[in-house]
């Protein structure tokens, strides 16, 4: 598969001089087109920083980041971001929220009918077309998150970046959205990079799991290719030897980090 997102010797420091804080160092990572990669690691190790660098929301202080062969120099519609909190505009309906993004990306080239079709199609993709005319306050948290994903996908991004998109949801809603995301990504082929704290979520969704070591100056400690066939069904995976192996490997890694973080008790 073609390399689509490349990070070469990427590092990120916040502040300057004596107050400089090195969050990330020496990050080398290549992600193929259509690949699903999760970033996992302890709280504060730099997962969101890494995602924000790829999104172009924060300029890297070291190294080079490329997307589809072009240097990432800022945010762009080729890289859509979904955050933990939906970030919908409360004064617009679900459809209008999606339409706003669609108009920004395709408004110069396409007529009003086509823009409307795109917006409705994106809501349908996440199973939310029935709530097109509802306002964010009138729908549940999981539904809002679906609309946020629809808005991101409606821009037809080359890369979908997700920062703990299901972190604020109950486990059943979370499971439904994980399944929906798997189906959507299979249908669209979108390259996806997702931050998560949830080991099962990481193994279920990923082609590769990127484990970040402890910070400060965190770097990639290990990359685990899951090697699980698709489509994946959570009920089948519960008894799959490879699934359990991946799960154990990530858990061992996180526990190892935890022990390093905690001072030894005398
Ligand atoms: N704008 C900033 N200025 C200074 N330090 C920052 C800034 N943003 C993040 N940091 C620091 O960089 C480190 C990495 O933060 P980041 O939010 O990327 O970690 P994370 O792995 O996503 O954490 P969590 O899992 O808790 O969300 C942390 O020590 C954090 O305090």
Mind describing the biggest β-sheet?
6 strands, mixed
Q: What ligands are attached or bound here?
A: adenosine-5'-triphosphate
* CATH class designation of the domain at 1-75 and 197-266: Alpha Beta
CATH level-3 fold name of the domain at 1-75 and 197-266? Rossmann fold
User: Which consecutive residue ranges, at least 5 long each, have pLDDT under 50?
Assistant: none
The helix/strand class is alpha/beta
Domain ABC transporter: 5-239
Keywords: ATP-binding, Cell membrane, Membrane, Nucleotide-binding, Transport
Membrane topology: Peripheral membrane protein
Family: Belongs to the ABC transporter superfamily.
Structure description:
Residues 5-239 form the ABC transporter domain. This is ABC transporter ATP-binding protein. With 266 residues, this protein is of the alpha/beta class. It has a domain at 1-75 and 197-266: Rossmann fold. 38% of the residues lie in helices and 23% in strands. It contains eight helices and ten strands. The protein has helices spanning 47-55, 94-106, 112-125, 141-154, 171-188, 199-205, 234-237, 241-261, and strands spanning 3-14, 21-32, 36-40, 62-67, 70-71, 79-82, 159-163, 191-195, 208-212, 220-225. The strands form two sheets. The chain has a six-stranded mixed sheet with strand order 6-7-8-3-9-10, with helices on both faces. Strands 2-1-4-5 form a four-stranded antiparallel sheet, covered by helices on one side. A hairpin with a 7-residue loop joins strand 9 (208-212) and strand 10. Helix 2 crosses helix 3 (112-125) and helix 3 (112-125) crosses helix 4. The protein starts with a strand and ends in a 5-residue tail after the last helix. It binds adenosine-5'-triphosphate. Adenosine-5'-triphosphate is lined by residues 14, 21, 23, 41, 43-49, 215.
């Amino acid at each position: 598969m073609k390399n689509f997102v490349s990070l070469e010797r990427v590092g990120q420091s916040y502040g300057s001089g004596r107050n400089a804080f090195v969050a990330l160092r020496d990050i080398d990572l290549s992600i193929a087109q259509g690949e699903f990669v999760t970033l996992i690691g302890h709280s504060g190790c730099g997962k969101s920083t890494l995602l924000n660098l790829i999104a172009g929301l924060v300029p890297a202080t070291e190294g080079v980041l490329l997307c589809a062969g072009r240097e990432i120099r800022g945010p762009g519609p080729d890289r859509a971001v979904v955050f933990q909190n939906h970030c919908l505009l409360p004064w617009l309906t679900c459809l209008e929220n999606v339409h706003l993004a669609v108009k920004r990306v395709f408004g110069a080239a396409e007529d009003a009918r086509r823009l409307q079709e795109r917006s409705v199609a994106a809501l349908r993709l996440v199973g939310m077309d029935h709530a097109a005319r509802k306002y964010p306050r009138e729908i549940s948290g999981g539904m809002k998150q679906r609309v946020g994903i629809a808005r991101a996908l409606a821009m037809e991004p080359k890369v979908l970046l997700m920062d703990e998109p299901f972190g604020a949801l109950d486990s059943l809603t979370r499971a439904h959205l994980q399944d929906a995301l798997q189906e959507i990504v299979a249908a669209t082929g979108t390259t996806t990079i997702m931050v998560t704290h949830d080991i099962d979520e990481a193994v279920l969704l990923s082609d590769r799991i990127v484990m970040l070591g402890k910070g400060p100056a965190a770097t990639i400690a290990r990359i685990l290719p899951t090697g699980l066939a698709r489509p994946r069904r959570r009920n089948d995976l519960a008894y799959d030897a490879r699934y359990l192996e991946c799960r154990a490997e990530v858990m061992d890694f996180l526990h190892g980090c935890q022990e390093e973080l905690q001072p030894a008790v005398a």
